[in-house]
Amino acid sequence: MIQYFLMTDRLAIRQATAEDADYIHSLWTSPDVMKCVGYPRGLLIDVEEVQSQIERDGGGEFGSRLIVEDRRTGERIGQTKLGIPDENGICEPDIKLHPDHWGVGYGSELWTALIDYAFTHPETQIVRGTPNRSNIASVRMQRGAGMETIAEGEFSNEGSPHPGAVPVPHYVLHISREQWMEKARRMQEETAS
Ligand SMILES: CC(C)(COP(=O)(O)OP(=O)(O)OC[C@H]1O[C@@H](n2cnc3c(N)ncnc32)[C@H](O)[C@@H]1OP(=O)(O)O)[C@@H](O)C(=O)NCCC(=O)NCCS
Questions:
Q1: How many Cα atoms are found within 13 Å in the side-chain-facing hemisphere of 177?
Q2: Buried residues in 153-178 as b, exposed as e (16+ CB within 10 A)
Q3: Which of 20, 35, 97, 150 has the least C-beta neighbours within 10 A?
Q4: How much distance in Å is there from the Cα of 155 to the middle of ligand 1?
Q5: Per-residue pLDDT reduced to its tens digit, 114-128
Q6: Which of 23, 108, 168 gets mutated to test ligand 1 (max ligand atoms within 8 A of its CB)?
Q7: Nearest of 117, 129, 59, 116 to residue 90 by alpha carbon
Q8: Where are the domains of the chain?
Q9: Considering only CA atoms, which residue is closest to atom 16 of ligand 1?
Q10: What is the pLDDT of residues 37-92, one digit of tens each?
Q11: Is the distance from the beta carbon of residue 49 to the nearest atom of ligand 1 less than 6 Å?
């Protein structure tokens, strides 16, 4: 039976399996999906490499490739990931939805759920996002979840093995465990009143 470890109103999240390799490959090689993360021609990768990445993932929710499904239809709508918290307790989620499913609020719904899940890891102190400054949907999605801009930077993508890789000017957005708990507390108060 398929195990979903995270559910939202409309979405169900599970570990990717080898059978998802073709699907993930189609997302990673799509210029539409990858252009805002610095790969306007998609990644140069074959299905076998995607499959072996999935096999190496090890089965934890943090650090593994995850699949996003529409709960109503069971259809896959994208791939996501929750980074393993680093030595500073920073956890970085990532979302890649298929363009057929953009613009109906799935990204925002999932991003909020990923932040919440990230803080279930005892080592997570901060959730970080680094959206391309021109990726309006991603920036709005992250700010809409209460994340604050703390810096700007640029990923150079120099030496990338993927042809056509370009630099990514990005914001650095953070939300801390305390800020997230405070937001949850305020929402509870509003619901109760
Ligand atoms: C970035 C991404 C996850 C956003 O998901 P989505 O489901 O399309 O986003 P949502 O529908 O939840 O919209 C999020 C916000 O962006 C706005 N938005 C969505 N599409 C937009 C567009 N084309 N132009 C401007 N604003 C847009 C929405 O109105 C919403 O803002 P609001 O809450 O202030 O109204 C999705 O576009 C994607 O997977 N892109 C490819 C991969 C990528 O760039 N990932 C970013 C790294 S996390």
A1: 14
A2: eebeeeeeebeebeebebbebbbbee
A3: 150
A4: 21
A5: 999 999 999 999 999
A6: 108
A7: 129
A8: 6-192
A9: 137
A10: 999 999 999 999 999 999 999 789 999 999 999 999 999 999 999 999 999 999 99
A11: no
